[in-house]
Amino acid sequence: MTSTRIPPKEITGLYGALVKKFASRTFGQVPESLGVMWHHLPVLKASMGFGQKLQKWDQCEESLKSYAHMAVASLVGCSWCLDFNYFMAHNRGLDVNKAREIPRWRESNVFTSLEREVLGYAEAMSQTPPTVTDELVASLRKQLGAAALIELTTVIGFANLTTRSNTALGIESEGFSASCGLKPMAQPSARPAGAAAS
């Protein structure tokens, strides 16, 4: 029984066969979310196309972009994106011990000061309204350079698009990380009522 708010549609046709083959080879299964998005192929293609372009950018360190996306997913509550990016961190050879700690990054001692600033930046960008400060941008620009900061910012913006869309559509984790034997994601301590997320 599906948990999505729009039932998945059957993935058909030549393009569908290619998508299913790619998904099975990459993830070991065809994600249910593809069936949901199959209702509107131009949206699916645009999202996948932009996501693939993001993967080719190389001005910002891959781990920083991955952890930032996961921080957005954790803040927004997108279990699909959190699980998928944890799985992809493993596949890309990133530090999975850090990746699994993203939901409790403030309490964890595994992150460098730069990583902590990036995680804070990802959350600050994701607040409504955003809570990004001049000081935070100046610090990240000094450490990363302008091009890397622009790249990181765009990745975080895309993360907000995907996480918020998945959450609204009821698209939840499909167990990618568990399928390759990764430990469950760390759980944050409860925040006091009214505590700021940034």
Describe this structure in words.
- This protein has 198 residues and is mainly alpha-helical.
- It has ten helices and no strands.
- It has helices at 13-27, 32-37, 41-56, 62-76, 79-91, 96-99, 113-126, 134-144, 146-169, 176-179.
- α7 (113-126) packs across α8 (134-144) and α8 crosses α9.
- The radius of gyration is 17 Å and the shape is globular.
- Mean pLDDT is 92; it is low at 192-198.
Short description:
By secondary structure, the protein is mainly α. The chain has helices spanning 13-27, 32-37, 41-56, 62-76, 79-91, 96-99, 113-126, 134-144, 146-169, 176-179. α8 (134-144) packs across α9 (146-169).
Task: State the separation between the terminal residues, measured CA to CA.
Answer: 36 Å
Structural class: mainly alpha
Helical content class? 55-70%
Strand content: under 5%
H/E element sequence: HHHHHHHHHH
* Biggest pleated-sheet summary: none
Supply Rg: 17 Å
- Indicate the low-confidence ranges by residue numbers: 192-198
Overall pLDDT confidence:
92
Number of helices: 10
Instruction: List how many beta strands DSSP finds.
Output: 0
Q: What characteristic shape results from the CA principal axes?
A: globular
